Amino acid sequence: MTVNDFLRRLIHETEELLKDISFVNDKGEPKRIKGYAQELPLLMAQVGWGDEGPAKTEEERFPYFLAQIDEIQYSEDRDGARARVWILLAVYDGLQDMSGWENINNALQRLIERFRRNPVLEDYYSCERGMKAAYPEKGDWPHFFAGIEMTWNLPE
Questions:
Q1: Where are the alpha helices (DSSP H) in 19-155?
Q2: What tens digit of pLDDT does each residue of 44-67 get?
Q3: Whole-number Å distance between alpha carbons of 45 and 50
Q4: How many whole angstroms separate alpha carbon 25 and alpha carbon 139?
Q5: Measured at the alpha carbon of residue 26, what is the angle toward residues 19 and 142, in degrees to the nearest 5?
Q6: Which residues does residue 34 pair with via DSSP β-bridges, in sequence order?
């Protein structure tokens, strides 16, 4: 199992968990959330790479999330490694009722409950039960951002 495999599986699981939340794109149209490993591939989309049509701006990517590995620790006294991982959510909602916060909080809650209740992913990776949800200090309506910090045990 590789780190890349882990990220692919985490992205797939997250997309499945969040597929029925009512996210919208920057035009207010319903859209499923899409995940990316490490960073938003904006430049690749601009030149036409990937399975989507070209995006001119980050705005056209909403809603999306990043599965981002912050660090990986390997130690002498254990097999495998421990990875600090962030799932960073980015949601667009232009309604004046600020319902984007409801969607992002629903997504956070769903992810936290899933991995606290069943911390195993694909029989290889396990998530520690302690997690941290984080929000920006200041809002940026109509964009809503939040994230979850998790620690994952990765096999050798």
A1: 42-46, 100-117
A2: 545 555 555 555 677 788 999 999
A3: 7
A4: 18
A5: 100
A6: 64
